[in-house]
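Why does residue order matter? Because the sequence determines the fold. Keep that principle in mind as you read this record.
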Amino acid sequence: MIDPYAPAPPGTPPSWRAPARIPVRQATGRFLVLAGVFVCAACGLVYELELVALASYLTGDSVTQASVVLSVMVFAMGIGSLAAKRLRRHAAAAFGAVEATLALVGGCSAMALYAVFAWTGDWGGLCAGGPRWLLVAFSLAIGLLIGAEIPLLMELIQRIRRQDAGGAVADLFAADYVGALVGGLAFPFLLLPFLGQLTGALLTGAVNVIAGGALVLGLFRRDLTRCARRLMLVANLAVLGILAGAAVLVDDFERAARQAVYGRDVRVALQTDVQEVVLTGGTDGRPLDLFLDGRLRVSGDDERRYHEALVHPAMNGPHARVLILGGGDGLAAREVLRHPGVRRVDVVELDAEMVRLAGRDPALSALNGHAYDDPRVHVTTADAFRWLRGAPTAAYDVVISDLPDPGITAGTKLYSQEFYGLARRALADGGRLTVHAGPVTSRPRVFWTVDTTIRAAGLHTAPYRVAGRDSTSDWGFVLAAPESAPPLDPDRRAPTPRLTGLSPSTLVHPRY
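Structure:
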C-alpha cells in the first residue's frame, strides 16, 4: 500500500488527488484557507466598487456605470470559473499566480483609468461619447481572475481533508460572502475617506498579494517545485514593489493628473466626505473656477448670469424669509442679500467642507461677498430632501433650489414630485420657488421633465432660460408658485442679461 503522505522525490510535485502535506493540523489548515477566501473576497469587492466609483466620478451616470461594471464582472466570473477547471491539477501554483495578477491589475486599475482620463480626456479610449472600453477591459480582467479563485480554493481545501461537496461549498461561500460584506463596508467608510481612491486601491492590491502568497508559500509550499516557489516569491515581491512604488508616487501623480484635467492653475484640491472640490484661479486677476467631482460648477467669468437668473425672479414679492437648498458656495446667498427687507436666509448644504471653504478661501469668499459673515445667514449641514421632511410649514417666502444638475443620476430624488411637494409645503401664502433645471438647448427633455414634475406637485410654473458665454450654452430655470398665487413674471426683477421666457412651443417639448 502506498503511503499518500510519504515524501515525494525532490523536485517532483505530489499527485493531484493525494492529500496535501501541510505544516499544520488539518483543522488549522482549513481555517487558513477559509481566511484566505475571506480576504480575497473583500479585496475583490473593493476592486469592483472602485471601478464603479471612479467611472461614476468621471461620467456622472452612476446607474449606467454600475450596470456596466457589475454585469461584465459577473459574466467574466463565470468564464473564469470554467477556465479554472483546467488548472485544478496545479491548484496551488495557479492560485498564487491568479492572486498576484489580480493584485497588480486591481490595485493599479484606478490609477490607470484616471491617467487615461486625465491625459486624453476620453477614458474610453475611443471618440468622446463612445463605449468605455477601458472600463470594460478592467471589469472583464478582474472578473475573470475573481471567478477563477473559488474553484482553485475548493480544490485546495478538499486536498486538506475530503468532505462532501455541499459542505465544502457552504464553507467557502460563507467565508466569501462575509468577506464581501467587510470589503463593501470598508470601501466607503475607511478606504475612500481616509486614503482616497488611488491609494485605497493600491493598498487593497498589497493585501491581496500578501494573502495569496502567504497561503500558497506558507501552507501549500510542498505542492510546488523549488523553482516554482522561487518564481512565485519573486513575482509576489515584484508586484508588491510596483504597488509600493505607485503608492509613494501617488501624490505627485494626482497633482500632475489634476493639472492635466484642470490646467496648471489648481490652487485648492479637497476630497470631502461628499465630493472632490477643486478651485483654480482667483489670484492675480485670473477668474476663479470651482469644480465639483470634476464638473465645472462655478465659472468666475459668467457665474453672475447664472445666480442672478436663479435668485432675482423669485424675489419679486415678499422675501423676508428665504431658504436656499444647496448653494454651499455662498453665491446664491450673495444675490439674496442684495435685496432690502431680507431678515433671514437659511442655507441647507450637504457638504460642510464646501461651506467652510466658501467662508475661508480668500478668492471664493470675496466672490460670494462674504455672505457667510452676515448674521442673517444660517447654515444647516443636511440632505435637502430629508431636511424638508421636517421643515416647518409655510415658513418661507422664497425657496431657491441650487442643486446639482438634474442630469446626474445620484441627485434624482432632488428633482422628484415628492421633493417639490415638500418644498411647496414650506412655502408661505404667495411664496415662490425657483429651480435650476439644467441646460435647455442641449437637454430639452430633462428641462421639460423638471417643469412637468413641478406642475404635478400642485404648482404653476413659468420656465425661462438665460444664455451663457456663447451661443451653444445656456441655463434653464423654473419659477413656480402655489396655484392660488398671482401670475408669475420671471423677467420683472431680473437684472441684465434679459431672461427668455419659455413655453412648450419654444423648444422641442416631448410628449409624456
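DSSP finds 13 helices and twelve strands in the chain.
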